[in-house]
């Protein structure tokens, strides 16, 4: 390595590691203060598990539009405003604010990663994954969502929910900073005959992001945290008796409690954790629960139907000149000043500066998305991104480290509607054991084909005049492991995508919404089939992937859940249980004990 790269490595290494140290100090500082000072009740109307994108929307609306009592139980910590500096987002990946999940070894994909496992970051912090994400806001194709709800709600009603969240809970702005790459890509798209778009359609646009004055903004940022959220509160399972969910077991700072829910338990723990909690509670496929001797309350396809937006193409486009966004630039004091004073400058970058929707089949329905980033992973010289993606060292040395003298940019082609499906399942009963996650990436050949078509489109972009003006060319180093194939042939690209398989972190579908318990977990009112007072409302209920980044659709869905299931009907009770257990609130504790034969503990 040349001395320049060693110097850059050294500076970045110090930067990354000081931040990691700071993260630990904040986390443990807040943990100890929560042990001494957090208080909570034995019983609430609603318990929300998880304060992520969905949980926070529901909590915000419960707090501002109803008089119900509720608590949000969040396994992660609070975090601090410094983490909301957009450019620092990736540094939370792999940190103590990440669940640090990974796939089981993949047969057909992730071959360039250590032990063939792709990393799957998920936020473990107030705000959930939206505190780790790229903040890109798109509604996607709203017509598609009508199908999720089996046409129970029209497109207008769904759009009203988007509007509500966008106007009342989120803050959105156009990107506040861009490299010359963003404009060049838009010009390249125009040269190739694409339109510029505002919302979902075939075409390209610069990113619209969930930020307030350049600072990361999540659905949790409107919540009164001290009043409604209990942090470091790890929910182990839901307690169900006579097919009625009535309480949760929760570890709060490692002590066990049972908290009761009078009207309902709402699971919003995300696509990997919600199915795990359900399975531990006895709701899941027989073949998963039986070997673990878990008493089966409902045999439902919990954990199946896992889908994710799969991508490829890191550092595929190289430039001879440097673009303005690079890690060294971020440490410039002027940019730090610009961020804190004006909410502008490179520190506001979401990473992805532009997006586009394309179709590989030639018709008008996009089946591919581009996410355009002015940096590659070699830019940090191997100090962070290599580890957070779990890239194999041999492959790093022989491929990515070879481009240190170039500037890399990334145009990720993403399969919008993948056909490969996987599953999430527990293989032990310990609540702290992570679930096994097998997304089965690229098990369907059509997904491979769409990605290869996507790479060909990326190359087409690299050959346009606006890109050529920046000195763009395609990385021509043979990808390690694919040497036997003629470079840039279809066989080569197949080998490449099976090695460099990337998730765009959009898992959905593990507690799918639908009309019957044979192939879904919740009905169109978000109720778990066969269990009263138990709801799931997070990314796991999405039966199919949206056409685009999914955060906005999840927030919409959570808002719709509140509007249709909590606000209008008030309860998820059946008449039978309200007859048996009808009582005034102050007697509820006592009667619940009698009715459900369960000790209320604190
Ligand atoms: C790195 C990354 C980048 C992304 N980029 C984008 C983007 O640019 N645009 C976009 O639209 N989407 C993006 N996404 C996707 C989007 O952010 C997520 O899909 C969305 O935040 C998921 O919302 P959720 O409410 O389902 O789950 P989450 O937001 O993950 O929330 C789940 C919450 O539940 C908590 N929890 C889990 N288990 C328990 C338990 N047992 N007890 C208590 N609490 C628990 C978790 O700690 C977490 O806070 C990205 C995601 C990631 C990870
Ligand atoms: C909440 O309670 C207050 C005071 O009792 C009442 O005025 C208000 O209408 C209630 N709001 C809702 C949404 O029920
Ligand atoms: C990394 O890749 C090399 C070469 O393909 C392989 O021999 C090695 O086992 C891999 N290491 C890991 C940890 O997967
Ligand atoms: C949006 O989805 C609907 C319903 O699935 C479909 O008919 C329509 O073609 C899609 N629109 C675009 C632009 O892809
Ligand atoms: C459970 O799965 C993990 C991998 O996800 C594996 O390492 C472990 O050995 C499995 N445990 C059992 C008891 O099968």
Automatic annotation (TrEMBL):
Every Glucose-methanol-choline oxidoreductase N-terminal domain range: 270-284
Pfam families per the UniProt record, alphabetical: GMC_oxred_C, GMC_oxred_N
Source species of the chain: Loxostege sticticalis
PROSITE patterns linked: GMC_OXRED_2
Transmembrane segments: 7-27
InterPro entries given in the database record: FAD/NAD-bd_sf, GMC_OxRdtase, GMC_OxRdtase_N, GMC_OxRtase_C
Keywords for the protein's UniProt record, in alphabetical order: FAD, Flavoprotein, Membrane, Transmembrane, Transmembrane helix
Highest taxon, organism lineage: Eukaryota
Signal peptide from the UniProt entry: none
Cofactor list: FAD
Family under the similarity heading: Belongs to the GMC oxidoreductase family.
Name of protein: Glucose-methanol-choline oxidoreductase N-terminal domain-containing protein
């Amino acid at each position: 390595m040349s001395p320049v790269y060693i110097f850059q490595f050294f500076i970045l290494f110090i930067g990354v590691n000081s931040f990691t140290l700071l993260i630990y100090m904040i986390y443990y500082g807040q943990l100890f203060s929560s042990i001494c000072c957090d208080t909570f009740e034995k019983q609430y109307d609603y318990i929300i598990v998880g304060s992520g994108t969905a949980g926070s929307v529901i909590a915000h609306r419960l707090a501002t539009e109803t008089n119900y009592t509720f608590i949000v139980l969040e396994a992660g910590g609070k975090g601090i405003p410094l983490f909301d500096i957009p450019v620092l987002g990736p540094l939370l990946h792999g940190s103590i604010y990440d669940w640090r999940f990974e796939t089981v070894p993949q047969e057909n994909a992730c071959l360039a990663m250590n032990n063939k496992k792709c990393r799957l970051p998920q936020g473990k912090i107030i705000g959930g994954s939206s505190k780790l994400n790229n903040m890109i806001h798109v509604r996607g194709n709203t017509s598609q969502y009508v199908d999720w709800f089996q046409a129970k709600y029209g497109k207008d009603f769904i759009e009203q929910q988007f509007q509500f969240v966008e106007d009342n809970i989120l803050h959105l702005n156009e990107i506040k900073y861009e490299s010359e790459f963003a404009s060049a890509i838009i010009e390249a798209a125009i040269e190739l005959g694409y339109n510029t778009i505002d919302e979902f359609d075939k075409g390209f646009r610069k990113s619209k992001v969930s930020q307030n004055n350049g600072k990361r903004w999540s659905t949790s940022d409107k919540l009164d945290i001290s009043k409604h959220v209990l942090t470091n509160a790890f929910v182990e399972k839901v307690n169900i008796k006579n097919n009625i969910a009535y309480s949760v077991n929760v570890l709060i700072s490692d002590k066990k409690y049972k908290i009761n829910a009078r009207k309902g338990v709402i699971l919003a723990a995300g696509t990997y954790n919600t199915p795990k909690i359900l399975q531990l509670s006895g709701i899941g496929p027989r073949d998963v629960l039986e070997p673990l001797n878990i008493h089966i309350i409902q045999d439902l396809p919990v954990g199946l139907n896992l889908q994710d937006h799969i991508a490829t193409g890191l550092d595929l486009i190289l430039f001879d000149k440097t673009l303005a966004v690079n890690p060294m630039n971020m440490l410039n004091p002027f940019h730090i000043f610009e961020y804190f004073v004006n909410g502008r400058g490179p520190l506001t970058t979401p990473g992805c500066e532009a997006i586009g929707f394309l179709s590989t089949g030639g018709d008008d329905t996009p089946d591919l998305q581009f996410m355009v980033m002015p940096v590659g992973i070699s830019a940090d010289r191997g100090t962070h991104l290599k580890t957070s993606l779990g890239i194999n060292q041999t492959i790093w040395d022989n491929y990515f480290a070879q481009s240190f003298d170039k500037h890399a940019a990334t145009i990720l082609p993403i399969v919008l509607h993948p056909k490969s499906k996987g599953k999430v399942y527990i293989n032990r009963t310990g609540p702290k054991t992570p679930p096994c996650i097998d997304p089965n990436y690229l098990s369907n050949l059509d997904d491979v084909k769409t990605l290869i078509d996507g790479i060909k489109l990326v190359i087409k972009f690299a050959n346009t005049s606006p890109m050529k003006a920046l000195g763009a060319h395609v990385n021509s180093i043979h990808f390690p492991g694919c040497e036997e194939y003629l470079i840039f042939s279809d066989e080569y690209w197949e080998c490449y995508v099976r090695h460099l398989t990337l998730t765009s972190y959009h898992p959905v579908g593990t507690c799918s919404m639908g009309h019957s318990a044979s192939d879904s977990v919740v009905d169109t009112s978000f109720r778990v089939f066969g269990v009263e007072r138990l709801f799931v409302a997070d990314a796991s209920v999405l039966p199919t992937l949206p056409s685009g980044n999914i955060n906005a659709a999840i927030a919409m869905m959570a808002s719709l859940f509140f509007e249709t299931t909590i606000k209008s009907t008030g309860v998820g009770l059946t008449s039978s249980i309200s007859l048996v257990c009808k009582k005034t609130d102050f007697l509820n504790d006592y009667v619940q004990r009698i009715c459900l034969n369960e000790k209320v503990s604190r």
